[in-house]
Amino acid sequence: MPYLGAFEQLILFSVLQLKDEAYGASLREDIEERTGRTVSIGAIYTTLGRLEERGLVRSRTEEPRGRTGRPRKYYALTPDGARELREAYASIQAVAGGVVSELDRLAES
Amino acid sequence: MASDPRDAPHPPRLPRLLVRLLIRGRDASYIVSDLDTSFARDVERGIGRARAARRYAWNALASVWSVWTSGLRRLVTHGIGLDAKLGLRMLVKQPLITAVTVLALGLGIPASLLFLHGMDVLFSDLPVPDGHRVVGVRHYDVDGQNPLSSSMHDLERWQALESLESIGAVRSSSVNIDTEESGAPPVRSAEITASSFDILRARPLLGRVLDADDELDGAPAVALLGESLWSARFARDPGIVGQSIRIGRTPHTVVGVMPADFQFPSSDQVWLPLRARAVDSPVGDGPQVMVFGRLADGVSLQDARAEISVLTERRASDDPERFEHLTGEVVGMATLLLNEDAENSSLWSNPELLIVQALIFGLLLVVCGNVGTLILARTAARSNEITIRTALGASRARILTQLFVETLVLATVATGLGLLLANRFASWLMGVLAPHDFLPYWADLTLTPRFVGIALGLAALCAAVAGVLPALSPTRRAIQANLQRTGVRSGGTRFGIGSSVLIVSQIILSVGVLALGATGVRTAFAYQGDDLGFDPDRYVYATLTVPEPRPMEVQGASDSLAWQTHLEEIQRELLRRLSEDPAVVGVAMGAHVPGLSSPNGDVILETPPAGFDPVESDVAVARVDVSFFAGLGRPILAGRDFNAGDAEGPPGTPHTAVIVNESFVRHHFGGRSAVGQRFRYEPPVPAWRALDEEEWYEIVGVVGSFGTNPENSARDAAIYHPLAPGAINPARFTVEVAGDPEAFVPRLRQIAASVDPVATVSTGLLAATIRTESLMFRSTFLLVLALAGAAFLLAATGLYALMSFTISQRTQEIGIRSALGASTADIVSAVTRRAALQVGAGLALGIAWGWVLLDNSRNDVEVGNIPLTLALTAAIAGSVCLAACAHPTLRGLRIQPTEALRES
């Protein structure tokens, strides 16, 4: 099983945060607000497409409402996705455990 | 939340258009929509329209980048791997397509690059450190359109060039080394300036290279030997340095041995100091040399060219008469040594060469078209698979990628095998050519990484042409329509007019060329060596070259005349001594040797015989010494032999008496008496043939036909012109020997060296040389035959593909016809109509084209009965076409109505 990359973890956490409102534009905004990173809509979609193929997220589409409405594709974590994200986060925590203060000290020195 | 989209501000148009154009696939509309939403939110947040637009543009371009790179990555990691596996499986499952493709592309791709490779090899840098910085310097005659040799005066002048860190000169010739004692063959030698070794960064294997003191007048005579000569003639004697060897008349001290890879400038094995000086000859005169140098640090080729242009322009203003029509050139070393125009050294600098290469690639496209025909048949047969894959969600691009990769696997395997074969062939060819010095010493024919890279690139291109183009149409059809057709095998894929034109034109081409190739091979193999009128196994021939005197040795017209007399004496003396040797049966001198090819000319008779239509043909034209026929014991059948008076007179005197052979009399006079008749040559006669196109020549005698045209004994008419003594240099001697000619060769060289140790003699065994020429002649026609055969095979394969495809498409129709009581003839007629039309048209036009081809080749091959040849060729070609159609047609005839119904 391929591991979750940092960007994939970011997106999955963001999908979790946004609950039923997780689609391209909202995910981009959320990630930008929380991390200060500017990411492209295209990068979000290609990553989510990959995660969907692996069964870690599922999507539903909403057709445009009215003449000028916009189509949207909403994403949500699957149980497999949740498990993998939890494992990935746990791994980070396990490795980082007890050294975060040291990390802060080093970074600020 | 986003506001109502109807009120949303519009994002910048250009990035949005790019996104809509470049992002495809199922998520495209969501990406576009989300980009718009992001833009609208940025505006809502009040960051300003301009900044929002910039953020949109970045977001849009970054999205395009992400989608494309992700798509490519997926293609490489998932799709192509699987497609490649499928492609490999197809190689085994479809051996016919594999075999034809391997044959066509495996031979076609390397063959299409041979011209380019030849240019690369010939004009490559010299194999010396930083070889690309060693350059030639010369004048180019703008009026005459040819590069000029240089003089020592030029060398002196060019020493002022600051673009070159050093400059040198070299001139090549051949020398005898102890030949009078050993009878050893002459050796290629170069007179070279000491500076050259520094320019070429050349280091000796033993001893030292030449130095500046060796060039001084009065310095001891020294020589530098090549490793090959040192091995062959001196058994790698470690004490060779300091030993004395005799070169021509003069003893030379060996000062060193150069390593085997140093053969500068033209496979030379002996290097002597160049002692010519500018002061020894008038300006523009003196020994001809090649001048070269090494570019100074930081100087580019363009800098050097600019400097020499300025220098030459300055000279032209000082001395317009001599220099006005000249330009100064700095060229690659290979260009200088091969004496080629600079523009011919690269495809990119010569449009004509580029056109040749483009035509060759055009032929490769035809080959690709053939492979494409087969692939189309395969694609059509797989239309159901393609339709189902499309229905399951595969995009058209995905399907085309699959077909491309499958064909790419096939093309790559074919090209790989072709490259292996080409490399083996190149190694073999180098082994064959090396002993004869047919190639410059720096030329390495084996394949370069560039060659392999271009070949693989062409394989990809061919895969696109053969695999993707034919599939564009079948994959364009709507899924629904194809799904409806699935199962009834009536998919709309068709062989278009393009494939018909391809098949017909190949049949035309191959019938004509097959006929010519077969005729040529028949002519070439008919020759068994007994058509020459004499036995070449008894003959050896020798080419005697008397080196011209140095300019300082010729002081005026009287010395020039003395040299001419000297040349004549040497030739006469060699003729005399050879004729007196007990091993020699007969000897003759001339510009040509019987049995070997000679120049041709078209003749116009003064009074053609009434009622006889002379056979229009080229006639071999030989220039021979007046004692030629007597020397070789050839009797004069009518008229008289040459006498000394026929060739006498000062230079320029017309010598109008000629002797012709029996074939000439038969072809031009129908066998009637030719003695006393006159003719002249049809202009233009090239200057090198040394014939006067204005002059009327009179036939004074007739000799039996012998050794004029070994390739075609039916076309062996010949004219012999008398040669003034000393008129040619080199002169060729034909010697009939009582015993083994090969054993006589060293003796011949010894005799020649005893006449003049400076004159060099190259020898050959006549029978062996005729065999080589004959082999080349045969190989040419075998190659023509093989190429025609290959083209024909491709055409036949195209027909097979067409028929197989037709039968599989019309299974249901054949079944119904069969059920309705159609006869075998009806069914055959229905399914073979198109193929029959193609074959018929191809054969008919092929016969016409073959007729033209054969009729125009009468002088090269013994064409015989043209209608019969063409009828046989067409019959064979027709049979093969029939065989190609037979198997699929029989399959069609075996279709039962029940089978057809089951299929539907």
If helices are DSSP runs of H or I spanning 4 or more residues, what is the number of helices of chain B? 27
Please estimate the helix content of chain A.
55-70%
Widest sheet, order of strands of chain A: 1-2
What class do helices, strands and sheet pairing of chain A give? mainly alpha
**Main sheet characteristics of chain A:** 2 strands, antiparallel
Radius of gyration of chain B: 37 Å
DSSP summary, beta strand count of chain A: 2
Note down, in words, how this protein is organized.
The complex is a heterodimer of chains A (109) and B (904). Chain A is mainly alpha-helical. Chain A has 5 helices and 2 strands. In chain A, strands 1-2 form a two-stranded antiparallel sheet. In chain A, α2 packs across α3. Chain A is globular. Chain B has 904 residues and is α+β, with helices and mostly antiparallel strands. In chain B, the strands form 3 sheets. In chain B, strands 1, 2, 3, 4, 5, 6, 7, 8, 9, 10 and 11 form an 11-stranded mixed β-sheet that branches. In chain B, strands 14, 15, 16, 17, 18, 19, 20 and 21 form an 8-stranded mixed β-sheet that branches. In chain B, a hairpin with a 2-residue loop joins β7 and β8 (250-258). The longest helix of chain B has 45 residues, at 49-93. Chain B is globular, with a radius of gyration of 37 Å. Mean pLDDT of chain B is 82; it is low at 482-493 and 551-555. Chain A binds chain B through residues 23-25, 28-29, 38-43, 45-46, 49-50, 61, 64, 66-73, and chain B through 2, 5-6, 23, 27, 29-31, 33-38, 41, 55, 58-60, 62-67, 70.
Task: Characterize this entry briefly.
The complex is a heterodimer of chains A (109) and B (904). Chain A has 109 residues and is mainly alpha-helical.
